[in-house]
Amino acid sequence: MMRDLVVLITGCGSQGAYGAIKSLQVNGERNIHFLGVDVDPFIANRYVVNEFYVPPRRNTPEFMPFIMDLTARKAVDVIYPIPTSELEMFAARREEFESQGQRVVVSSLESLKTANNKARLFQWMEEQNLPSTPQYRIVKSWDELESAAYALGYPDRRVCFKPPLSTGSQGFRVLDTKIDRLTLLLYANPTSTWMDLDELARILESADPFPQLVVMEYLPGDEYDVDVLALEGKSLCVIPRRNQSMWYGMSLICTTEPHTEIMMMSKQIVASLGLSYVVSLSFKLDANGHAKIIEINPRIPGSIISATMAGVNMPYLAVKLALGESVEIPHVRWGRQMIRYWEEMFLSPEGELLKPISTG
What we know:
Helices cover 30% and strands 24% of the residues. By secondary structure, the chain is α/β, with parallel strands linked by helices.
């Protein structure tokens, strides 16, 4: 057995946190003591970690001093930032953490600023002549948005848009004049992504200032998320998974598949940006079956456990890379399918985790 570790998981209630903790728990080499922090005290993952703390909100000046003090007092070895909104904060303070003995599992600040911003990402990919760049326009006014939609084929073709900075499916909408509004009203979820340009105009007429948006071609084909383990741009392992069912940007059902084109494109993008540790890339196929990038999340994705169950424990291998330890990449078990389901936890009035209740 290797030496024990203390690992801090930030954003402990986020989608990627549980998969990261679960993967680290089954590393097979060492014991790990988990500290979790999250501003929401009512999260199930607080009962998965060994110690749980409620920090100041991340947008306050007290947040980072709280983390630095906690990691020093608890002799934390590795910090694992999970939420996208925290990545750049920790990258900027990496040297301070290292000076007191912690390693931070996060890419460089420069690469994060491009990867986290969809507008910058598409512009950068276009400059690099990467073939996976979708057709897109960056707009800052209604006239620009309307012009971009028509330039991309609306109303004969569907067009979609989203904010440059968002997570999951926040702000994503598809413009289509052929959608039956009555069907949407009666049978679609209230948060349906479908609308037409007239409806969008009515919503945005009161926007002040007008939000920057990325308008892009609609991609009708299969969606793939790709888990990449990398170090300074070198991809050590690439595992695409085809999403068969999604819920607000998270995989409910997915299968690991060795899609050659997507694997090659993922390596190109990671190399050009110089990304490190666990990176998630999302692709969709166009009408001709060619893969186009949707977004990059340079962090642990919500479905990273699928890569672990395919034989490659990326969260743990990333910890070893951050510590400067040697890693061996196991063989990927292709065709492994993940099906996500709900499970309940029960608490006493005092907040203690209860065992399942018998019917007797």
